[in-house]
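Appendix B. One record, verbatim.
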Amino acid sequence: MADYIEADPPTGSSQATGIHIEGPFLSHDKRGMHPAEHLLLPTPRLLDQLWQASRGNIRLMTIAPELPGALETIEHASALGIRPSMGHSMATQAEAIAGIMSGVVSATHTFNAMRPFDHREPGILGVVLDRDDMYADLICDGYHVAPEAVRLWLKAKGPERAILITDCLSAAGMPNGECITGDTLVHVEGDTCRTETGVLAGSVITLDRAVANLRRFTHAELHTAARLASLNPARMLGLPEPLTPGALADFNIYDADGSRRQSFMRGTLLALS
């Protein structure tokens, strides 16, 4: 991944901003499709090994803050310039707050793979939706999160702290049927992707469709939906402002319904399939 990021991208090809390590510091109870044998307890030393292997290209780290060693690892990640995010976790309210105090800035795929909300034990979900200083990203494919919950999330986080993601697998764009992603067999049917046991295995949507879905579910203005997929994640990651003179001209053009019609990369109009 570091080789790919550091190489000059081919003409008309996108370039990755950095690496998101969604693992190995995850809860066994909320691991989703992540293989249990690959999960490890977090330590600063182990994070250093990953950091060195990435040649400093890790930008985001999902971690379960309740794990032994998690708080020290979160602090170390922040010192390296990595943005820590809480996810795949059974953290309680107190454990979530401890993670935030150690440097967590966001929540990974809000609602999914985290302790369910309870009015006496709100967990990560209640803490992140309540706090104005926390980002929260969400898979807006219509399957991972119901439209009602999408609307609640957007009302809670507002247009400046909500982030749209895809959680997309390599099965995106494939026809219905079986696919291998990593070492896992998954079943694609329409806009869903599941393991053999029926667990949602990430998504198969693209980010432009997440923008369109948000418009459809919430009736948010187009500029708000687009912001959630561009400016907000850039700011959460501490990246340079994308809408400034001299920045790379990478942008999409949408119609009023939120459907992508054109894409520009480095100022060049791309042919859409």
